[in-house]
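task queued by scheduler; priority normal; single chain, no ligands, no partner chains; default sampling; output format set to structure tokens
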Amino acid sequence: MKNWRMEAIILAVGMLLLGVFIKNGFSEFAQKDRSVNVKGLAEMEVPADKVTWPLVYKSLGNDLGALYDDIKRSNQTILEFLKEKGLAETEISVNAPEIIDLKAERYSNNNDTPYRYNVTSVITVTSMKVDLVRKLISEQGELLKRGIAITGGDYRYNVSYEYTSLNKIKPGMIEEATKNAREAAEKFAKDSESELGKIRHASQGQFSISDRDANTPYIKKVRVVTTIEYSLED
């Protein structure tokens, strides 16, 4: 005769253990699924370390040969001015002149002009001496004394400033952004009566560099946002 009582006890113990395992499994699954996703921001203002300055002037005339000689003299005068002020020849480049035949413009209203040719000449300064170049931009009026009028207003020839030393500040900014993200995660964990666990996933956003404002393009704002997912524990 079978011992039904013993089998019943074994079955009850097995069911009890199964229930414990299921409970622990659900608890671990729920715990595993708990997380918080936060973003950390780091910003820094830095001075531009590279400047590109196009010096533009125009020449009008009817004789291309005479215009060529005039442009050659003007270019030499500008080169001498820039070198006198402390720029190296390697920082200065002379662009090919842009010539417009006013009489050949089919839809222009220039038929009454006494000149046939309008020549635009550009000498470009590209330098890491940002402060010096900014000073020269404010002093370019001196070229008027030497017979050269630098023109402006053409969007193609605006002064531009760059920041090229991003790799020097990247590690520190990433560290700051990560720290800020962790502080936000810790605050969330505290408010939810949880403990902050390990990082489950992290991604670093792209660095962006922009002008601080329209009036100070030589000051740049560097920005990065990191996104980090932390696990939460009871």
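post-processing summary
- Confidence is low (pLDDT under 50) at residues 25-31.
- The chain is about 40% helix and 30% strand.
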